[in-house]
Amino acid sequence: MDMLAKDCVECGKCTALCQFLAQTGESPARIAGRGASVTEAFSCSLCGACEAVCPLGLSPRQLFACRREEAVRQGEFDSNEYRYLFPDRPNNVMNMYRRCYGVDYGDIENAGSGGTWFFPGCTLLTYSPGLTRAVFYRLQADVDCRGFWTACCGKPLRQLGLRPRAEALQGQLQEFLQQHNITRVITACPGCYYELEPVFQACNVSVRTVYEMLKLAPTDRNSKIKCTVHDACPDRFARRFGRQVRQALAQAGFSLREMQHSGAQAICCGSGGQLSHFRPDLTEQLVQARLAEARQSGADILIGYCLSCVLKLEGKAAMPVTHALNVLLAISEDFKGAKARAGQMLAGAAGERLWAEMMAE
Question: Can you list the alpha helix ranges (DSSP code H) found in the chain?
Fold first, then answer.
């Protein structure tokens, strides 16, 4: 990060947008010059807003991401304490949730190898199974989607500073592609999309968003509803999801209202970088800042296209918060209360046994 220490002009644009950087009381140049602490590395949500507003294209985010990896390598941070998050372990928290609440897709039969497969992403397939199924069935009808893939993209491992482990998991995904002769993957999650696009393109497999593949008919049924869109951090630079979702919502009759910070400058919802596991206080500040902007927009409803964002915001909001696919496909919101159910799963003596099973080596 010598470039950040040397080239940052301390203009203050990133610290004005990022609550974490503002709280440090220092510029990225000074932090890079002295070296970021482990606590600072895991206080960054890795959202990329700093990079988006930097006039020189510098990336404090990368400074903190690299520091996470260094902390793991040097034994300064015990990532194994967070092994309940590891998607390459069978007893991770999402697998346990699905087992506890009977979320299962074993009845879905793939049409066979080759062609297009749907990759919903861990959060959607875990906490909103009804919507996940509805999207898959629509994709079967609209674009002859032949397969349903319940794997993880590996991003949680990368966020925890475990890049080699993430790359190993993604290597397994590439093997799966080749074994099943898959030629196109459709994702519903922006995190999965941007994580997997370069990985799958290396295998000559195209990656598409669900919004560009669904055949959505124009309607005026929502013509009296004003909505505002929360942009997910992974979409900050390419803006593929944000543009497609806004176009689809406008086609569905919604009147769009933008928040003060949207697109490249959108405020993180607080779920980025697994932040809530390290800085729940900062997560809450980000949630409240985002909800304040949503209220100020004058919208009737807040719509997200990342279910992690929706789950983070909907529990604290006075206004309705939902997923874009719920409103576009008119599907009921089965994700409501998912976070509370996750907490209940670990309550009491049964919860203690489940936690012990989850953390067992």
Answer: 2-7, 13-17, 19-24, 28-34, 38-41, 49-53, 60-73, 93-100, 122-127, 129-143, 155-159, 163-179, 190-201, 210-213, 240-251, 280-296, 307-314, 324-329, 338-345, 348-359
- The reply to whether 85-213 and 226-330 are identical in fold is yes
Extract the tokens encoding 63. 């400074």
Question: Please, what sign has the CA dihedral across residues 344, 348, 350, 356?
Answer: positive
pLDDT tens-place values along the chain, 361 residues long: 678 999 999 999 999 999 999 999 999 999 999 999 999 999 999 999 999 999 999 999 999 999 999 999 999 999 999 999 999 999 999 999 999 999 999 999 998 889 999 999 999 999 999 999 999 999 999 999 999 999 999 999 999 999 999 999 999 999 999 999 999 999 999 999 999 999 999 999 999 999 999 999 998 888 889 999 999 999 999 999 999 999 999 999 999 999 999 999 999 999 999 999 999 999 999 999 999 999 999 999 999 999 999 999 998 999 999 999 999 999 999 999 999 999 999 999 999 999 999 999 7
**Angle at alpha carbon of residue 325, lines to 322 and 331, rounded to 5°:** 80
Q: What CA–CA distance (Å, rounded) separates 118 from 188?
A: 8
Q: Helix 190-201 crosses helix 163-179 at what angle (to 10 degrees)?
A: 70
* Domain residue ranges of the chain, discontinuous segments joined by +: 2-73, 85-213, 226-330
Question: Does residue 267 sit in helix, strand or coil?
Answer: coil
Question: CATH class for domain 226-330?
Answer: alpha beta
**CATH fold for the domain made of 85-213:** Rossmann fold (3.40.50)
Nearest partner of 41 among 17, 73, 63, judged by Cα:
63
CA-CA distance, 170 to 7, in Å (whole number)?
A: 34
